[in-house]
Structure formats: structure tokens, C-alpha cells
Amino acid sequence: MPSIILSFLLIMLASVLNGCVMTEEVKRIKASKNNQDKYLEITKGYLNGKQIFIRSCNTCHPGGKASPTGPSIENFARKFKTTNELKQFILKGKASMPAQTILTKEELENLVQYLYAEFQPSNLN
Ligand code: HEC
Fold first, then answer.
1. Strands (E), the chain
2. Distance, CA 92 to ligand 1 centroid (Å)?
3. Digits of tens for pLDDT over the chain (125 positions)?
4. How far is CA 2 from CA 5, 7, 15, 78, in A?
5. Which of 15, 43, 100, 123 could form a disulfide with 77 if both were Cys (CB 3.0 to 4.6 A apart)?
6. Cβ(120)–Cβ(76) under 8 Å?
7. Quick check: 56 and 93 in contact, CB under 8 A?
8. Longest Cα–Cα distance in the chain
């Protein structure tokens, strides 16, 4: 008889402990989700052109100049008749230039404005 009571108590204890562990796990998942949401809220459409350029372009086009991995982008507008052409080029990439897949619409606009202002001052319209 006592062994039945003992196993009953053990089962109770186990499920209570398990409950605690689960709660902790759920809390951690929630916290991480909150952080992710906050990050998205802060960065969504928020990075300005210069920040995006430094994050995604400067390695291959340092300060707009040529490097072993990318050509100079000064005077790029001779190649792109419209800002839309330039945007499509940036989104798709070409050869070893990677496609940009995480830019929001606003960020792409910010980046393009920055490119014209910084590397193509006379063509800014
Ligand atoms: C991994 C290196 C790399 C990265 C990162 C990169 N590019 Fe490029 N980029 C290239 C290469 C290589 C070319 C030449 C592509 C071709 O025409 O074959 C190029 C071409 C260009 C051109 C055309 C230049 C011209 O006048 O012919 C522009 C404009 C440009 N990149 C802008 C950007 C922008 C804006 C970013 C960031 C969003 C970026 N690149 C990120 C490698 C890179």
C-alpha cells in the first residue's frame, strides 16, 4: 500500500516539476519573440541609405570606389536610365553582386536616394 502512495506522490512531483520546466521554456520563447518583434519594429523601413550602404554594399564598393570584389559605382547613372532600373538591379544583383532580399520598400528608396546624392550628385532629380 505505501508503495502505491509513494508512486502517486512521485508522479505528482514529476508533473509539478515538469510544469515548472514548461513554464520556463514558454517564458523564454515569449521573451525571444518579444525581442524579435522589437528588432523588427526598430529596423523596419528605418535604416537610412548610408546605414544600408555600409551594411550591404561598402565591402565591395568601399566609399563608392572599386575593390577586388566590385567595380567603382561613381557615375553609375550612365548605366541606369531611371531610378526604377537601378532599384531592379539592386534587388536582383548581378554576377557576384548578391541580390538584396531583406530591404523594405522604404529602405530601397533611402538607399537609392543616398546613391544619387553621394555618387551621382549632378543627376539627382
Ligand atoms: C559581393 C560584392 C558586392 C556587393 C556586396 C555589392 N556589389 Fe554592387 N557590384 C558588384 C559587382 C561584381 C558588380 C559588377 C556586376 C556586373 O556588371 O557584372 C557590381 C555592380 C554594381 C553597380 C553598377 C556599377 C556600374 O556603374 O557598372 C552598382 C550601381 C552597384 N553594384 C551597387 C551596389 C549596391 C547599392 C550594393 C548594396 C546594396 C552593392 N552594389 C553590393 C559587387 C558587389
1. none
2. 11
3. 578 888 878 777 776 777 677 788 888 888 888 887 776 666 665 899 999 999 999 999 999 999 999 999 998 989 998 999 999 999 999 999 999 999 999 999 999 999 999 998 775 44
4. 5, 9, 20, 90
5. 123
6. yes
7. no
8. 93
